[in-house]
Amino acid sequence: MGDLEKRINALRNINNRVEPNQAWVNATRRTLLMQAKNSLAGESVQTTKTIRYFYQYFVPVRFLQVVRGPVLAVLSIFAVVLGVSSASVSAAERSLPGDFLYSLKLVTEQARLAWTSDKGEKLKLKVEFATRRSQDLKQIANSGSSEAKTSERVQKAAEILKRDLSTVQEQLEDVRAAATEPGEAVAAAKLVDQTSNELVQVLQATKSSLSQETQDKVTEAQAAAAGTVVKALEVMVEQHEESDQSIAQTEVMEAIEYLSKTVASATGGSTIVSATSSILIAATGTAPLPPTLKDVLAQTKEATLQAFAAVQPANLFDVSSTQPIEPSATSTLEAPNQTTTSSATP
Amino acid sequence: MSNLIDRYLLFRIRTKRDPEAFAKIYDRYVKAIYRFTLLKLPSKEEAQDITAETFTKVWNYLQDHNEVANLRALLYRVARNLIADFYRAQKPDQSLSATVTITQGDTSIYMELEKTSDQGRGEDLVEARGEMSLILRQLEKLKDDYRDVVALRLIDGLAFADIAEILGKTSGHVRVIFHRAIKTLKEIA
Questions:
Q1: For chain A, N or C: smaller number of CB within 10 Å?
Q2: Searching chain A, which residue's CA lies closest to the CA of residue B20?
Q3: pLDDT-based confidence at A110, cuts 50/70/90?
Q4: Between A and B, how many CB-CB pairs are < 8 A?
């Protein structure tokens, strides 16, 4: 064994003297570190400089020599992934529905969402994205491109927004169910309430320059947003009933009132405001059986539904249905719309 | 001890999302993996590519899997699989390459040695070359698995349990292979 052992030892020593090319080691380290950082950051906005550097390394002369299938395939996938995750993201950020890069923007948002495991964080992110959608919508409406293109894009954005809002509602439910600390559910509900109200208002502002059909679509999104506010309010009312500490009665009432005003300005009907005010007053009154906050909210919800229904008969609170309105249904909308449009015009 | 360090680094990647920890893993293992692939591949360039690819694949693996018991074994296993893929992708008539490979393997290692050895140690180099080719030819006579076991054990200094994990065998089986391989080498020595 001695002889063999010596030889093996020699082999080991020799092998251990073999050093990889230091420049290659460093370059690979840099590349790997960059790749790691990229995949951890998710939406990192790196400059195209790093892309060029990377390509520079991986497209040397021997790249052509190495026409080994698997290695080439992996390297090109590597390059594409790196390319997509760095330079393209910033361009995608600015893209709008109908743009080629818009789906990439959505995907990176989804990626961010997937990375977050905390339900509260997820909800915040989702709310942020919904706000972004409404910003997108605003941008499109003001973009000044052709009527047809704008309409198409706005409608698309409105669809996505509706979908997002229904997800927000679900997630709010999740947060409520999973909340371990008292203030968690309330904080989430407040955030959703505030943002959704804003959404309705922003959407209202974009309506003016759009065609009727597109306006209807936007109204649908508004209804979805209003429904989301209602959901948030429901959570608030429930939390209040569980413990007065988590949210005060007056706060809830103010929120309900605010909703009614927002809905009123969106649908052009003022009846909802007066209805809500009167019931709110009754709830604080000293009459034998004052309506509870729950009752108030239920009535407000009903009134909201009716307000939006007056604008469009289709069931708009059903945010789960993302089907476009059937052509036959559109014709029945013509008549009622004509009357309400005139009252909604400022 | 080294396993502890690995576990700490993996922990940093998983929990603190620290990319630097992965860079440290690279620092720890790049030479070993490079040498391992160099022994088995026709040229330095391939060894470099496969080594880089190994680390990339392991990084991706780490993203999807929470627990990695043996990082070292994982690295070797991935490298080994990549090498196997490499040869599978080659044209069929090149795969009677055991001989060809090892001889070319000589070349690549020699080239490395030439670059790294000092000028004045020519004699050492000649002797080293002699030893190297002898042993490599002997190793080449062994079956693939046998060769791997010997190389991993005697050159990389891995424990039988680790080798077992890398090759997908039981550690008992690996021990048996090792002793048989040594016996064969002695006989043809």
A1: C
A2: A33
A3: confident
A4: 118
